[in-house]
Design a protein that fits this description.
It comes from Tepidimonas charontis. Cu cation binds at residues 63, 67, 150. Keywords: Copper, Disulfide bond, Metal-binding. This protein is 32% helix and 25% strand. The protein is of the alpha+beta class. The protein is globular and about 55 Å long. The two termini are 30 Å apart.
Amino acid sequence: MVGASWLWLTGCEPVQQPTFRGIDVTGAPYGRTLSLTDQHGQRRTLADFRGQVVMLYFGFVQCPDVCPTALSRAVEVLQRLGPEAKRVQLLFVTVDPERDTPALLREYLAAFHPSFLGLTGSAEEIAAAAREFKVYYAKVPTGSGYTMDHSAQTYLFDPAGRLRVVLKHEQTAEDYAHDIAQLLREADRAR
């Protein structure tokens, strides 16, 4: 009663915490650093995208279904967000740096959306990034070469650059757009 009276007297309303459809990982002790090279040869860190919501996904170009599905969903998410989409950046980190050259990443991601950035590095840099984000990946031999097995979640960073949400591959574009919109509204209120 005292708390409610105080709010009434001050004319303030309680700040509602966002309700995410993905897993709220605010304050997680992982996913804090990333430093890789984009498909244009520019070194990128998470700080480069302050002011935007970042969707971070680990995958590979020759992925037969999971990665194209994730990228197609990201396109739908941007469409659902309308004008707010300009405040969102998708980062696609390859788990197959041996085959996913910058030129191949450029061509592949451009087929989905011109704003998507592909990140790569040495095998050691990719392994370090995967460890930082608790991402599983492994080379799996096939008859004529290999494929990659990998986890398929998407990480959302708020405009302040903090890891906030992990979305599962099975979730819908509506779920993704909902959580991104929540992060954008929260950032607007903090201004």
